[in-house]
Specification:
This protein has 14 helices and 23 strands. By secondary structure, it is α+β, with helices and mostly antiparallel strands. The protein folds into three domains: 110 residues, OB fold (Dihydrolipoamide Acetyltransferase, E2P) (Beta Barrel); 134 residues, Nucleic acid-binding proteins (OB fold (Dihydrolipoamide Acetyltransferase, E2P)); 161 residues, OB fold (Dihydrolipoamide Acetyltransferase, E2P) (Beta Barrel), CATH 2.40.50.140. The strands form four sheets. Strands 1, 2, 3, 4, 5, 6, 7 and 8 form an eight-stranded mixed beta sheet that branches. The chain has a five-stranded mixed beta barrel with strand order 9-11-12-14-13. Strand 13 and strand 14 form a beta hairpin. The radius of gyration is 28 Å and the shape is elongated. Pfam families: DUF223, Rep_fac-A_C, REPA_OB_2. GO terms for molecular function: DNA binding. It comes from Abeliophyllum distichum.
């Protein structure tokens, strides 16, 4: 580096008359601040010693620098405003922030640092995304956009409405992942993808998060950045792969197998990730997602094991099964009513028990019954028809991934959603295919991932009584059918627990 150029690390708020030679790593879209009408744009700069700094452009200066400070380009920057940022506003690249304005001298250099820039990227492989699930870790990914779904609207827990749009990305192993774009990214990045869809654009994205919502997927954050077909080595290699496999990628798009049958591989958690159920309540201050190793029981038998839902957003619907309608939640004019499994269960380990709700694929896996089958079995006159075919106990330990959600903003009461259920085999094989619930068709009469097994004995032991006690059996069934959950649960738990754990017949009362 020339003697007249300062390294980023040497530039402080007290440094004057300085010039730095930098390359632009990221440049975000312009956005509006949450609590003011101020517009801003973030830029990440790096010098030749790999020091990085976060720079911001505000308001009218955004338009002025529209054609400057472009990703992968090299610039000389002189006398930008330098300040320390408050801890709560600091980015991942340090405590110093530059402000670039009309007073800042910016000069582009005709230098190619492609190899240097390429070496700074660390992309997370698609099959390792689950390792960052629901964490605060920022990830970067590279992939080819092969599909984009219609945008839809959702209602957030804060009472606001957001616009989201899903993009399907594929890598060189033909693995796919769903990228959910939120709000401002729908207005710009998704429009670019739609306009250039046939060209199969290469996407490099940074500052993304991995979510367990509706399966393992990735989504944007407020500071996410995107580059399309950037001049880096990884993108060039991926572009060449697209050219060589263009016909096969077109077939993948036409078949859309990634929407129905292609599973996401989810590794079993390590021992250090497992939380005892008795400790969950005390940890809610610092975390809301937990892995537990437990057994599962259906204690409440007069619950509904399915509901009618929009096939796009999975929100409840009053339409008839298979009917096309306009969803009031996601605003889709062509939503279709589909059955969706739902079951309220109790998880129990050696320390305590906890109640939770499974919806979608985990519920079908728990009950070993498809949502369509649960719907056809349900009869207002006889709820026990469902129990004749559904599994209602899981006596072997399984891994369950829970999300704690406050019931409302005015209490400290929590409910628990069970996002994943991993079979015991994952302990040995260390990997478990988990179908993305949004990609699973609940309207199908057969579910590929549900094994065709005989109904497990444990579920029927609950109702077995000696032949001489037929009157007791009728009494028990009447209690199940006509009692509400609050009155039925204590009676059923007293009867069922020994049977489920010891697999013994319930003795008749005298």
């Amino acid at each position: 580096m020339g003697e007249d150029y300062k390294l980023i690390a040497a530039i402080t708020p007290n440094t004057t008359n300085w010039t730095a030679k930098v390359v632009v790593l990221e440049k975000s879209s312009a956005r509006t601040a949450y609590h003011s009408p101020t517009k801003y744009q973030n830029v990440v700069l790096m010098d030749m010693e790999r020091n990085k700094v976060h720079a911001t452009i505000y308001d009218t200066n955004i338009q002025a620098f529209q054609d400057q400070l472009l990703p992968s380009k090299t610039y000389l920057i002189s006398n930008a405003a330098v300040r320390l940022t408050k801890p709560e506003y600091r980015s991942t690249v340090g405590e110093i922030q530059w402000t670039i304005s009309g007073r800042t001298k910016v000069q582009e250099l005709q230098e190619d640092h492609t190899a240097f820039i390429s070496s700074t990227y660390i992309f997370t492989p698609f099959d390792r995304l689950h390792g960052h699930m629901d964490s605060k870790t920022d990830i970067s990914i590279i992939g080819v956009a092969i599909d984009i779904k219609p945008k839809r609207f959702i209602h957030t827990r804060s009472g606001t409405q957001s616009c989201i749009q899903d993009v399907v990305l594929v890598n060189q192993r033909f693995e796919t992942v769903l990228l959910t774009m939120w709000d401002q990214f729908v207005e710009k990045e998704c429009i670019y993808i739609s306009d250039n869809f046939n060209k199969k654009p290469i996407i490099v994205a940074s500052h993304l998060k991995v979510s367990s919502f509706s399966g393992v997927s990735i989504s944007t954050k407020s500071n996410s950045t995107f580059s399309f077909n950037p001049p880096i080595e990884q993108a060039t290699q991926l572009h060449n792969w697209v050219q060589e496999n263009n016909e096969q990628l077109s077939q993948v798009f036409m078949k859309k197998d990634y929407l129905s049958t292609k599973p996401t591989k989810l590794s079993s958690p390590g021992k250090e990730q497992i939380t005892d159920i008795r400790n969950i309540q005390g940890l809610l201050v610092v975390q809301h997602h937990f892995w537990v190793e437990a057994r599962a029981y259906v204690r409440v038998f007069n619950q509904s094991f399915w509901y009618m839902a929009c096939d796009i957003c999975n929100k409840i619907s009053n339409a008839s099964f298979g009917e096309t309608y306009a969803c009031i939640f996601c605003k889709s004019p062509n939503a279709r009513a589909a059955a969706r499994a739902k079951v309220f269960v109790e998880l129990e380990d050696s320390t305590a028990s906890i109640n939770g709700t499974m919806i979608g694929e985990p519920a079908e896996r728990m009950l070993q019954c498809s949502a369509y089958r649960l719907m056809t079995l349900t009869s207002p006159a006889n709820q026990l028809q469902v129990l004749d075919e559904a599994r209602i106990t899981v006596e072997e330990n399984h891994f369950f991934y829970l999300k704690a959600v406050k019931k409302d903003g005015h209490t400290d009461q929590w409910k628990y959603d069970i996002i994943f259920m991993l079979e015991p085999s994952t302990i040995r094989e260390n990997v478990q295919p988990v179908n993305h619930p949004e990609h699973s068709s609940s309207t199908s009469q057969t579910i590929n991932f549900v094994p065709q097994l005989m109904p497990p004995p444990a579920k029927r032991v609950l109702f077995e009584v000696p032949p001489t006690s037929a009157s007791n059996k009728r009494l028990t069934e009447e209690t199940l059918l006509h009692s509400n959950a609050e009155t039925a649960v204590p009676k059923l738990s007293t009867i069922a627990t020994p049977a489920m754990k010891n697999k013994e017949k319930v003795p008749g009362s005298k």
